[in-house]
Amino acid sequence: MHPYETIRSEILRRINDQTWPAGYVLPQEEQLAVEFEVARGTVRRALSSLVDAGLIERKRRAGTRVVDRKSHTSTLTIPIVRHEIENAGHHYGYKLLSARICGPEIDEKGIFGDVMLRHILCLHLNDGRPYQLEDRIISIDAIPEAETFDFKSISPNEWLIAKAPYSSVRTILRADCASGNDMKHLRVKAHDPVFIIDRQTSFNKVPLTYARLSHSGDRYQIVTETDEI
Fold first, then answer.
1. To pair with 168 at 20 to 30 A between CA atoms, which of 15, 28, 46, 51?
2. What is the CATH number of domain 81-216?
3. For residues 165 and 9, what is the distance between their CA atoms, to the nearest angstrom?
4. CA dihedral in degrees (9, 12, 17, 18; nearest 10)?
């Protein structure tokens, strides 16, 4: 990996895990060059690529700031499920159901190509009740640490947001009938409606992970609000 890509990845990680939240003013190029032990030109190249991606903005005299992605109505950021539940005043629980190494044959959508994959199935709980079934595939080629991490105490959702910077997210919201796993783990019946979030993340056009996130149709809702003008 070129040094500027290493710097870009680290800055993305800080943005994605809110170490550098929206509006945060980044250190000056000279400071970043000292931190990463590279020339200013290398830092400038990393920052320019993030400007092009719309993640930061550079203004004369105002410095370089993290862009508030909430202001882009076409962009959905990735929430941490634990925060969703706890912020609503409920008790969060997590249960790992299975985690295994797989070949490309598990990639039914043909997203990842000929690489080894980690398949994880886990359940998020709200006050002890099933809330979200996370069925996730991670590219070991793109995120090598995922091969050995056990995911027993932290969900893939939360671990990935902290460890794997992403530059693009594709999200599909849809309704479907309950699958076998949905019936078993969400405690729903055959043909009961479930609400599905299909989410795929990539970094520099390299697929990182795909997740099917299912919820009982009668216990899940999405609420959106806009600030008063």
1. 28
2. 3.40.1410.10
3. 6
4. 140
Distance CA(116)–CA(103), nearest Å, equals 5
Domain-wise residue ranges, the chain: 3-69, 81-216
The packing angle between helices 40-52 and 3-16, to 10°, is 50
As a whole number, mean pLDDT of residues 61-67 equals 87
**CB distance 141 to 115 below 8 Å:** yes
Query: Which residues lie across from 86 on neighbouring strands?
Result: none
Residues 185, 130: contact at Cβ < 8 Å? Answer: yes
Would you say the pTM of this structure is higher than 0.85?
A: no
Residues 171/146, Cβ–Cβ less than 8 Å: no
pLDDT tens digits for range 113-145: 999 999 999 999 999 999 999 999 999 998 988
Two structure tokens written together for 167? 């530059």
* CATH code that applies to domain 3-69: 1.10.10.10
Domains 3-69 and 81-216 share a fold: no
